[in-house]
Q: What sequence folds into this?
């Protein structure tokens, strides 16, 4: 009985310690965002890495997600002779939920994992310690540019995903399933407001913050050599993905 209680107690202590360490690093990162020295070159470099290099996977995800939505909702609405609502359903689903969430998850798998691996490798090879010796704050130099890039680029990628999702839904609905082009577009305009798009972009910015910070956090506190880098990378993807889904629920409850 005592060993069970010890195990539970150590688990609780580890969770609380992890949360406290994350919060302290998060606060320090936010403070450095507004303090000099500013490093625009590093921010642009990370924007290119997070945004431009993720464009292809976002295009594929958005296009086929919209197509699948149109295909699935068509057969449901057909039972009620409401096929014209497919366009509105695709538009609302992409702008409010699927665009931000799927973009966040895909970029987490591509860029978030790379952040954890890169910073983790720097930690185990003592490059982060070398930065401190050179009087360069590692949080300001390594973490802040990645967080800023994530917050800026995720809404851009989400807008691309939303647009292509609607295009994919249009192609499947109109060209393959025979829905009237005018009905698809009219219902889309009627039911999808700019507020839906704006709220989705706000979600995307939050998801960009989550995936960048979690990737940097896991990499920053990596231990255990090469094996530890692999472990931190895996944990970063899992934790960031779970946090994105949890945050999506609360943001949806607040916004809609």
A:
């Amino acid at each position: 009985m005592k060993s069970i209680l010890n195990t539970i107690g150590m688990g609780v202590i580890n969770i609380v310690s992890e949360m406290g360490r994350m919060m302290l690093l998060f606060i320090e990162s936010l403070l450095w965002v507004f303090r000099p020295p500013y490093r625009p070159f590093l921010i642009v470099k990370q924007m290119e890495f997070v945004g431009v290099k993720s464009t292809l996977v976002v295009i594929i995800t958005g296009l086929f997600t919209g197509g699948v939505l149109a295909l699935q909702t068509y057969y449901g609405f057909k039972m009620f002779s409401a096929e014209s609502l497919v366009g509105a359903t695709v538009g609302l689903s992409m702008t409010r939920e699927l665009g931000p969430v799927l973009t966040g998850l895909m970029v987490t798998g591509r860029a978030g994992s790379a952040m954890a691996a890169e910073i983790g490798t720097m930690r185990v090879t003592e490059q982060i310690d070398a930065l401190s010796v050179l009087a360069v704050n590692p949080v300001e130099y390594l973490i802040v540019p990645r967080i800023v890039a994530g917050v800026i680029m995720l809404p851009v990628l989400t807008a691309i995903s939303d647009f292509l999702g609607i295009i994919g839904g249009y192609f499947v609905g109109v060209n393959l399933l025979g829905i009237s082009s005018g009905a698809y577009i009219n219902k889309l305009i009627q039911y999808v407001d700019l507020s839906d798009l704006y709220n989705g972009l706000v979600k995307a910015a939050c998801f960009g913050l989550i995936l960048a910070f979690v990737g940097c956090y896991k990499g920053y506190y990596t231990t255990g050599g090469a094996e530890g880098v692999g472990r931190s990378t895996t944990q970063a993807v899992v934790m960031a993905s779970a946090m994105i889904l949890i945050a999506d629920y609360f943001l949806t409850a607040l916004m809609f």
